[in-house]
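Field: COMPLEX_INPUT
Field: COMPONENT_COUNT = two
Field: RESIDUE_TOTAL = 332
Field: MODE = joint
Values follow.
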Amino acid sequence: MKTLIIIPAYNEAVTIGEVLMAALAITPEVVVINDGSTDETASVVGRFPVTLIEHVINRGLGAAIMTGLEYAKFTDADLIVTLDADGQHRPADISRLSAPLLSDEADVVIGSRLIDAAGMPLKRRISNLLANHLTWTLFGLKVSDSQSGYRLLNRRALEKINLVTNRMEVSSEIIHEIRRHHLRLAELPIEAIYTDYSLSKGQSFTVGLKTGWKLILKRLMG
Amino acid sequence: MSVQIVFLLIILMMITRVVQRWRGDAITGREFLFWLFFWFLAAALIAWPESLNRAADLLGVGRGVDVLIYLAVVSLFYLIFRLHVKNEQLERDITKLTRHLGLVKHRKHD
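Field: COMPLEX_OUTPUT
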């Protein structure tokens, strides 16, 4: 099975090198979507044998992920993985997480940090649970970690999923797309690696509120 | 009376602006008719303020000015909704362009 790893990145010069080394140990097919970074992200990525696609201006996580998915459609990848660029995810988990896709029991696998949430700061646990409830209320699908950036898709899911949101609301939108297209979803536990750096990169409370509001509007207005 | 004249003159200025914009293709025919209707209605309400009281009686609302306020609030909400929808579409279009540029540039380097 040909695996493609998609890594959206915005100002991740500090961690992207290590993430790419770990990703390349799994597959040579890695694409970084540089979402208008203003630091040295692009030049760090340039040192690795990966594909770099650049957004001339910052459009947000959702926009970067969809650019990665559009790129993936032109490849012959069977397994598409999205990973965060801040070092929170272990690419080595891909072989374990891809099992439901390989056995054709699922179309999408989400690496869930909340199946075993040991090590997750309490504030993050609360905000993730709130996000799960909102996603469930708005889009009708209950998942244990709707905001996880660690996702695996098969080709069928890649062809069906079409994301229109630009920013952090993309995580919930993916859940909506899964439901809308009746894709089979599996969740498997992952351990999230929390550092001061990765914690500083996550959604703040204010951003979380804005994201929630945008999701409500999206649901109401279609 | 003088206040009414001032407001009517302002409305006349607005109507002139609307006509200029339509002639300069800055607004469509539909937008031109909408704004023309809007300003003529505003002029009529200023020239015959007692018409509002009649409307208030018809609608079972207290005073003429209350009718105006309710109408204004509903109209503002509608305009905000339309602006929001337009803004969302613009954001999506900008993202599509940004994505297209990134993918085309990548394909050129391949």
